[in-house]
Inverse folding.
């Protein structure tokens, strides 16, 4: 079993009452809707037709770097959003609008004659020292700029690098010309900006190159003067100095001299004591060996004859005299060998001492050179730094010169605007449909208000 809700009946009754009121006032609804449609039709017919022309541009994040093959195709960047928003604002800038006005000659076009005349009429008293023509031109440019910007629409294409430049005017040819002029002037302004930046960079680098070149020349002169004054000869960054090279060679010679001195000293110590007959130089001397053999023969003959003759016998005296002479010669030769060994020892000792003295002198020279090389290296580092800076600036100067001559631009025209064949506004069908919807809504509201007012009067009775 279903129980009836006491609120259902009044709600259904109200809806039925409103529906009946709308049916009874159908003529009022149609009348109001028709009036609104007729008003929209009249307003649309009275409006001046506007023709909309569109130029499509492609804006890259960066221009193609022709001088660098690896950067030939511009890459994506997380800053693209800010970059493209900046480009859109530049397209809608007043400075670009004034360039377009001057390029397209809009001040003399019939479409903008009323604007020019109205701006001329507003010219008040001319300021002191300001020509009247300049004031008039400024007012006309300002008025035309406002009107041109009001007719301009920048329409970015989503998810692309394309942007549409839309311009509307009563003249289709004018709309196409202004839209295309906008594209060409936007590209030209970008190139001029790049050229100005390149010219500024070139001028700045040229001035800096002159300064760095003079600084390099001064540092090189100071470096050469100091090296000549201090007698510093460079043999290469990776090679030791001349004193160091000589020190290395003398150290090797000193080692050889010490070895020779030790050997000669040992030979001299052996030679200075004893008879010297066992010295290697004596044993290997053929003259001494012959003399010793002769003395041995004489001694043998003397001993043989001693059994027959007495020592004072003339023959015995002769043999004794010959043996003494041979012994004297042997002693003389041994003494000469001793002197030779001594001389070799003294020469080796002297050579060692001279080498040690020379090495000590070279050590002092090397230490002095290292002390003077501190300033020498300071001058040299200054020369190297200035040369590197000069070479880097010169390379950058050449790169900017090449890049400036290329004339690369990051903006290109995809589609030029053609004069539109049909007006873009007013849109008669759209306006009438919108007016019909609004008129029906207004008629319904009016019918409900009429029913409410009638019900209120009846309730008061």
């Amino acid at each position: 079993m279903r129980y009836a809700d006491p609120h259902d009946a009044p709600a259904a009754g109200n809806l039925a009452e409103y529906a009946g009121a709308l049916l009874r006032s159908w003529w009022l609804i149609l009348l109001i809707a028709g009036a609104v449609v007729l008003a929209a039709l009249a307003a649309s017919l009275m409006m001046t037709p506007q023709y909309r022309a569109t130029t499509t541009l492609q804006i890259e994040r960066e221009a193609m770097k022709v001088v660098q093959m690896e950067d030939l195709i511009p890459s994506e960047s997380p800053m693209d959003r800010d970059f493209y928003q900046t480009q859109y604002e530049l397209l809608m800038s007043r400075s670009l609008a004034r360039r377009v006005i001057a390029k397209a000659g809009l001040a003399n076009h019939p479409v903008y004659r009323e604007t020019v005349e109205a701006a001329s009429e507003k010219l008040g008293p001319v300021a002191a020292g300001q020509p009247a023509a300049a004031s008039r031109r400024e007012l006309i440019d300002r008025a035309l700029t406002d009107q041109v910007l009001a007719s301009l629409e920048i329409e970015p294409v989503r998810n692309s690098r394309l942007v549409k430049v839309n311009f509307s005017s009563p003249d289709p040819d004018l709309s196409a010309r202004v839209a295309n002029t906008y594209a060409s002037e936007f590209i030209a302004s970008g190139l001029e900006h790049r050229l100005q930046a390149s010219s500024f960079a070139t001028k700045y680098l040229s001035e800096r190159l002159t300064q760095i070149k003079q600084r390099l020349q001064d540092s090189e002169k100071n470096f050469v003067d100091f090296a000549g004054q201090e007698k510093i000869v460079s043999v290469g960054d990776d090679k030791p100095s001349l004193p160091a090279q000589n020190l290395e060679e003398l150290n090797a010679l000193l080692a050889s001299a010490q070895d020779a001195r030790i050997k000669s000293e040992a030979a001299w110590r052996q030679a200075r004591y004893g008879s010297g007959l066992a010295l290697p130089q004596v044993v290997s001397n053929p003259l001494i060996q012959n003399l010793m053999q002769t003395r041995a023969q004489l001694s043998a003959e003397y001993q043989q004859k001693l059994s027959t003759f007495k020592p004072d016998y003339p023959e015995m005296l002769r043999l004794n005299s010959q043996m003494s002479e041979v012994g004297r010669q042997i002693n003389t030769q041994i003494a000469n060998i001793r002197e030779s060994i001594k001389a070799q020892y003294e020469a080796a000792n002297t050579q060692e001492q001279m080498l040690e003295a020379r090495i000590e002198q070279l050590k002092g020279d090397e230490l002095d050179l290292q002390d003077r090389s501190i300033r020498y290296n300071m001058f040299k580092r200054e020369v190297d730094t200035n040369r590197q800076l000069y070479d880097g600036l010169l390379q950058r100067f050449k790169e900017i010169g090449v890049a400036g001559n290329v004339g690369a631009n990051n903006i290109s025209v995809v589609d030029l605007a053609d004069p539109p064949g049909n007006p873009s506004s007013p849109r008669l069908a759209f306006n009438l449909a919108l007016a019909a919807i609004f008129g029906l809504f207004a008629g319904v509201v009016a019918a409900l208000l009429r029913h409410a007012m009638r019900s209120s009067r009846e309730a008061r009775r």
The longest strand covers residues 51-59. The mean pLDDT is 75. The first helix runs from residue 8 to 24.
